[in-house]
């Protein structure tokens, strides 16, 4: 198991396609998700890469009329703190930033590392996460349910 995590830790995430990333996430066990979440350095690298790709995977034509600040709160485990990113969609553009601004989000999604990675890799949908009570949604539930329309989500 540790060997699998070592291989993941050695990956150059910038060189991994979204589809390859989706397959990697699909193949992870619950224990491996826990190990990744508890390794602060690896967790940080993965989250930075995922959020770094959001702007490139944004579909402006699908979100042309959308104006929304989306706050993502990824809950920490193993002594790691919660991580917050914001996705600001307006005028057919998407800007992602780390940290919490003073602006009021239209929706906040609160979820653990494993659920977040499954969501952004296309291995689970937002409605399924909500129904399983694996994501807490504060604000515009309809926007949260349709978020995957605005991004090119890979399929594993």
Automatic annotation (TrEMBL):
For this record, the Gene Ontology CC terms, alphabetical, are:
cytosol
Signal peptide residues are: none
Q: Which InterPro entries does its entry note?
A: SCP2_sterol-bd_dom (IPR003033), SCP2_sterol-bd_dom_sf (IPR036527)
Q: Which residues form the SCP2 domain?
A: 58-151
> Which SUPFAM superfamilies does the record cross-reference, listed alphabetically?
SCP-like
Q: What name goes with this protein?
A: Acyl-CoA synthase
Q: Please report the organism this UniProt entry assigns to the protein.
A: Streptomyces venezuelae
